[in-house]
Amino acid sequence: MFTQLKKIVLSLTFLSLSFAFAEETALSGLYRYKLDNGLELFIAENTSAPLAYIELAVKAGAVTQTPQTAGLFHLYEHMLFKGNEKYENQQEFTKAENRMGVIDENGSTGVDRVNYYFTLPSSLVKRGLEFWSYAIRTPKLDEKELENEKAVVLAEINADFSDHGHMRMSAISKYLFPENAWRLDPGGSPAVVTNATVQDLRDMQQRFYTPENSAIFVGGDVKHEEVYEYVKEIFGNWQNSPGSIPFQAPSTKEPFSKDKKIVVVDSGNSDSIINVSYYLRGPDGETEEGDTYAADVWSTLVSSPNSTFSKTMVGSSILSIPESDYVGAHYSTRRASGMIGFFGAMVLNSSVQSKKSVPSAAETNYGIGSFKVISTRSDPSSPVDKADSFLSIIKRQAVPEMLNKETFFAATPLALVKQQLEDSRVYELESAKSILASLSASWASCSSDYFFNYDKNIEQVSEDDVVSFIEKYISNKNGLLVVSVSPAVWANYKSSFLGHGYEQVTAENAFWQNDLTR
Questions:
Q1: Residue 25: pLDDT band by 50, 70, 90 thresholds?
Q2: Three-state SS for 234?
Q3: How far apart are CA 217 and CA 53, in angstroms?
Q4: Looking at the DSSP assignment, which residues form a beta bridge with residue 370?
Q5: How far apart are CA 6 and CA 10, in angstroms?
Q6: Would you say 118 and 104 are in contact if contact means Cβ atoms under 8 Å apart?
């Protein structure tokens, strides 16, 4: 397996963790080093164009926030472009980039990392590395610029507060991760941003922007030996801070004693369709890396059109899911916020849109093959009935079917799933930049070894591993059911949703920031 990705290195000698020499990896043309100060360096050689991509990433962002610091990483990311020891202000900073012919320059604050990157002519790769060294290590952090940039960051945060998609994701984070929802919110808290001082940013910089917590990614028409010498010269004297904060993993995996149900009213939703998702906590890359491989296999397996899950959900006359493209499952690998999700889009009968009331509750049995769903609605076309049935069928039929190895893996053989993951990986790693982008994400959520050993570990996943994953994270677990409906559907069925235990998501209850001010 994975022959398209691997190159057999006949003369590879065992190297110490200091990587005094390049370690050529299983991917041809990809090398990694580690400096004495702990800074990791990854270089992808590709001579197809005279360009070089440079990225500097830091294991920081939302995952390392507290309620008192939420927003500082976001604010610092903006301030990094405002000048430093060599480039006096943003204008000089931008001029320097223009002189180098930089394209695609940007920075981002995410859940598991903060990263800064650009592409420039490969002949100027040393200058590019020097440029980012000044930016990362010696930001000016001018007080006047800070006040100006606060307004920009606050505008971004406030815009998110009025966005239905952000409101939905914030509510999911708040309910699924009640002990630290701010760890999934890179934007941060308006109060923290408003009150931030230069010293706050300096303290954060000293604790997190350190070489042992950072990595450099260089790709393109470069020679790895030269890049290593450049990095060693430029970043070799970067010192670690004794005040770094040890990372703490979440304390609980099961936030609910019973399933929680919420409704998001979204004007972008069609009057004829409701979108339903069901979320559970999944394995975290920091502490449960071994389970993430089975999770990836499981999500690919379940999302196959031929899977028992797809056939069960599409085959339900109650749900009215048009075809397999409208239903599936996924798992997202993150350092401390791994999440499992089921999703489906269900068509409503035309009568639903004009219906003003729903008859009182009555138990009705609707057959799905040999399985009986107990509905507490008397109208199977009701969006409330469909949403409740979506959850019921997943928990009472679809998940038990997944635990039956004879039928579950017969529908979509494990070998086929692994081939699909291999093909996806080949496509993902088709260029130096895409290789490094994927590597950077893996490095932040798990480790660089996660990226390099991924193919081997996926190949080793067995049917028993997948079943164990289902038993550990899905079967008999309580999660969060999220229903998205249009304003018209909500107007017609509001009382029914509320009567069946659903809570409406609003700007007042969706955001963790509001809870801290009460």
A1: low
A2: helix
A3: 8
A4: none
A5: 12
A6: yes
Query: pLDDT of 125-134, one tens digit each?
Result: 999 999 999 9
Maximum distance among all Cα pairs of the chain, rounded to whole angstroms: 75
Contact call for residues 341 and 480 (beta carbons, < 8 A): no
pLDDT tens string 370-404: 333 333 344 557 999 999 999 999 999 999 999 99
* Interatomic CA distance for residues 345 and 277, integer angstroms: 9
Q: Where are the beta strands (DSSP E) in 447-513?
A: 480-485, 502-504
For residues 64 and 193, the answer to whether their CB atoms sit within 8 Å is no
pLDDT at 353: 46
Question: Rounded CA gap, 264 and 169, in Å?
Answer: 10
Answer for the pair 291, 473: CB distance below 8 angstroms, yes or no: yes
Closest CA to 219 of 104, 49, 24, 97: 49
The CA distances from residue 140 to 57, 127, 146, 300, 499, in Å, are 20, 20, 10, 47, 56
**Residues 431, 14 contacting (CB under 8 angstroms):** no
Interhelix angle 72-79/198-208, rounded to 10 degrees, is 100
Task: For residue 252, give every residue at least 6 positions away whose Cβ sits within 8 Å of its Cβ, in sequence order, or none.
Answer: 179
| HSE-up (13 A, CA, CB side) for residue 126 | 10
Token pair for residue 208? 């997190």
Q: Please write the tens of the pLDDT for every residue from 98-152.
A: 999 999 999 999 999 999 999 999 999 999 999 999 999 999 999 999 999 999 9
Q: Would you state the structure tokens that stand for residue 358, as one six-digit string?
A: 């729903």
CA distance 151 to 149: 5
User: Which pair of structure tokens corresponds to residue 238?
Assistant: 């970067």
443 burial (CB, 10 Å; 0-12 / 13-18 / 19+) is buried
Other CB atoms within 10 Å distance of the CB of residue 382: 26
53, 125 in Cβ contact below 8 A? no
pLDDT band at 412 (very low <50, low <70, confident <90, very high): confident
Q: pLDDT digits over 269-302, tens only?
A: 999 999 999 999 999 999 999 999 999 999 999 9
User: Is pLDDT at 1 greater than 60 in this prediction?
Assistant: no
Report helix angle 463-473 to 289-303, nearest 10. Answer: 100
Structure confidence at residue 10 (pLDDT): 23
Provide the total of helices (H) and of strands (E) in the chain, helices listed first.
Answer: 21, 15
Q: Give yes or no for a contact between 353 and 308, defined as CB atoms under 8 angstroms apart.
A: no
Q: Is 255 exposed, middle or buried (0-12, 13-18, 19+ CB in 10 A)?
A: middle
Q: Give me the DSSP letters along 367-386.
A: EETTEEEEES-S-TT-HHHH
What CA–CA distance (Å, rounded) separates 319 from 342? 14
